[in-house]
Amino acid sequence: MRSAFSRMSPDAVGSLRAVREVTLSPEVAGRVSAIHFEAGGQVGSGALLVQLFDGPERADRRAAQAKAAFAGIQVARSQELAPTGAEPRETLEQRRADRDQAAAAVQQIDARLIQKQVRAPFAGVLGIRRINLGQYLNPGDAVATLTALDNLFVDFALPQQELNRLKPGSTVIVTSDAWPGRRFTAMVNAIEPKIGEDTRNVTVQALLPNGDRALRPGMYVTAALELPLQQGALLVPATAIQTSAQGDSIIVIRGSNARVGGRAEIVPVQTGRRVGNDVVVTSGLRAGDVIVTEGQLRVQPGAEVKIAGAIPAKQGER
Description:
By secondary structure, this protein is an alpha+beta fold. It has three domains: about 1-20 and about 150-225, Elongation Factor Tu (Ef-tu), domain 3, CATH 2.40.30; about 55-115, Orthogonal Bundle (Helix Hairpins), CATH 1.10.287; about 235-305, conserved putative lor/sdh protein from methanococcus maripaludis s2 fold (Beta Barrel), CATH 2.40.420. The chain contains two helices and 22 strands. A six-stranded antiparallel beta barrel has the order 3-10-13-12-11-14. Strands 16, 17, 18, 21 and 22 form a five-stranded antiparallel β-sheet that branches. A four-stranded antiparallel β-sheet has the order 1-15-20-19, with no helix packed on it. Strand 19 (about 270-275) and strand 20 form a beta hairpin. Helix 1 (about 55-80) packs antiparallel against helix 2 (about 90-115). The radius of gyration is 36 Å and the shape is elongated. It starts with a strand and ends in a 12-residue tail after the last strand. The relative contact order is 0.19. Belongs to the membrane fusion protein (MFP) (TC 8.A.1) family.
């Protein structure tokens, strides 16, 4: 047996989902004049990915800039003449309004030029390219997906019995058959307020750091909630538990050197949840006790027992 200062909830099948993922598309219609990315490439936030043909907009901007420049000259002239009375004050105010309108026209065209571009809204990895050079795109046509892989959501469900132990910030241990033997640590960040009426499960969302990008959105994983520390509890093989009308009990070998042998004693125990092939024992045993895990029917209370290969519990082991 081993000390159970921390214990796990039953394993739950979960799925991974990107915290940030978007299908990129243009805001306006246009012909693709340049493609600045490769499928599967890493891009930074704000990177230009696709340029739509913007010849008419650029011509409009040059004309608007010329008007704005002329309007600025007119204002400067009126500012010199108005104080001398050579030009009415109303003319100066009108030319200032014309200058402001011309500047606003340039800004409007700049906004149209921006709409002719598709940029990355955040840093991430691009998916398969779905467009070609010269292709005509309409608003909403898919260009590619952009996914941030540095953090992932783990969505899974736990029985309602775990609700009293579940809270934001709880640790979740995640494993995947893609990485045998490796454990990933996530943290609960959201709990569905409603219990599923069909399953009586509560849906949980955990945030999983994925700095090395070992995991990908869409993968299924196994998730288990690491429950609060429980001092004094022990994990024993389920086969060691004997159940009767009087309750649960375990045969413990008592003696000065129980590893070698001693006297068999039936000890009543309090048990908790099952964790894999083990059962949590909350009271009745001490760390280091040697117990019988099989063949109990051949062991009589008070009988002398010789043991081969006994392994006592180790304090602090998980």
